[in-house]
Design goal:
It contains 11 helices and 20 strands. Helix 2 crosses helix 11. The longest helix is centred in the C-terminal third of the chain and has 16 residues.
């Protein structure tokens, strides 16, 4: 079915982005395993785009720092005395030793472990041993840490290794306007899991750029009555979902949420967790028995009426669709997020420093923390106490759960990575709802060829 025909079935309250033409792409197998192709991506994509790395609230005081790795690089983000954040390559300008190896900390000065050169948080060199023993003079006052473009938005720290880059706002395009109304900068992290996935980073991002897999990989298990029910209240049909692409290369998919209409059990009863969500907003699920198509609008009205009084001040800034529906974004090249009215599902794939058939895969969850609401936040890991201290879990695949939905995705990834290496794989044959996958790969090709400014 053509995209225009699909959109005829959508509710009129769904927002729109400009229509895009998409070049078909074969997704050749060597793109997922070739060291040569990975090197081209590194030089022409990863070092030219804005990347989401850190979180502002983890650097509350001057001298606080975070470190994150992207491919072969380690990026150091540091809170300054004036409250701003600067980013540097995590490398001493003396003999190339990394300044820090932990994930975060606090310093008065960064002391290089090799020869004790001391760098201030603003990147200036403050101390060297034997300053008179340098033929070119004391390096203090001459050398600086190599700074990287750094901006903040939605409470996150974004960096760009290209000194001639556009602003972050220009790079994000319509995503900026979509996100800024939620006040995500005030939300708290409730889940933080990272693993080294045995797949190329594009296997992960291909998956999050399409919905075609949802009804198979994430199909409900159990009795027939359970299979008929959309427990999350989300209609996953491509005929009722909007698929958008921004001029800047980012994607958006909107699925109807808070909605029991197209799939409800045989007796017409609304199932969990949607039934529980309705009760949270003073709606009786029994009132919607046999008329599940009415739950979406009713939940929108209830949240519109009750939300601000419960501490959700930003509800007044959201459109009706944002009050119930699942907004799934893919930001070029490596970030995906499902943005709900009360949750931010953070999914990120970072390239492995040496192996193109591996990637660092992050699954985090942020949620608002208004006063006077339930003591637990709803996350992909279930309910989490709002005052819980969330530790960053790092583990090998299979050692721990990434969360039910992501575990289901992870169960599929390795076999696809192996299949991409087969001589029998001749390239992809994509459905219309997979057009954002084509767009991802076409944009990678454009960056490599120098066609994207």
């Amino acid at each position: 079915m053509a995209e225009q025909e699909i959109h005829k079935n959508l509710p009129s309250d769904l927002p729109d982005w400009p229509q895009q033409s998409v070049r078909a792409h074969k997704l050749e197998g060597d793109r997922y395993s070739s060291h040569e192709f990975a090197e081209q991506e590194w030089e022409h994509v990863w070092t030219k785009v804005w990347l989401l790395l850190g979180r502002e609230d983890e650097l509350p005081n001057p001298g606080d720092w975070q470190q994150e790795e992207v491919g072969r690089e380690s990026i150091l983000m540091v809170r300054q005395k004036d409250g701003s954040i600067k980013a540097f390559y995590n490398v001493c300008q003396h003999r190339g030793h990394r300044l820090v190896s932990d994930d975060k900390g606090h310093v008065r000065r960064f002391i290089c472990p090799y020869h004790s050169w001391a760098w201030n948080p603003d990147g200036t060199l403050d101390f060297v041993q034997d300053p008179d023993d340098f033929p070119d003079g004391n390096p203090c006052g001459k050398l600086l840490l190599e700074e990287i473009a750094c901006e903040t938005f939605a409470g996150f720290i974004w960096i760009n290794m290209d000194s001639d880059c556009v602003s972050l706002r220009e790079y994000l395009g319509p995503v900026w306007g979509d996100w800024e109304v939620y006040g995500i900068e005030n939300w708290k992290r409730y889940v933080a899991k990272t693993t080294v996935a045995p797949v190329n980073w594009k296997v992960v991002m291909d998956n999050f750029n399409e919905s075609y897999h949802v009804n198979t990989v994430h199909r409900p298990k159990g009795a027939d009555v359970e299979k008929l029910r959309i427990h999350s209240g989300v209609d996953t049909s491509h005929t009722t979902s909007r698929f958008d692409m921004a001029d800047e290369g980012h994607g958006r998919m909107i699925m109807l949420g808070g909605y029991a209409g197209p799939a409800i059990d045989k007796t017409g009863v609304v199932g969990e967790p949607l039934a529980g969500i309705l009760r949270e907003w003073d709606l009786d699920p029994a009132d919607f028995t046999g008329r599940g198509e009415a739950t979406r609008e009713a939940l929108q009205q209830a949240r519109r009426k009750l939300g601000p009084g419960r501490g959700y001040d930003y509800f007044d800034k959201l459109n009706d669709s944002q009050l119930t529906d699942a907004y799934h974004y893919t930001l070029f090249p490596n970030f995906a997020v499902s943005l709900w009215v009360d949750g931010f599902h953070f999914l990120r794939a970072r390239p492995h420093p040496t192996d193109p058939e591996k990637c660092l895969f992050d699954n985090w969850w942020y949620a608002p923390d208004p006063e006077g609401v339930a003591d637990a936040a709803r996350t992909t890991a279930g309910l989490v106490e709002r005052d819980a201290v969330v530790e960053h879990e790092i583990f090998e695949p299979g050692e721990a759960s990434m969360g039910l939905t992501i575990d289901q995705d992870m169960s599929i990834f390795p076999a696809q990575q192996k299949g991409m290496r087969s001589r029998g794989y001749k390239g992809a044959y994509l459905a219309g709802q997979e057009s954002r996958v084509s767009r991802l790969h076409a944009l990678i090709d454009d960056y490599i060829a120098g066609r994207h400014s």
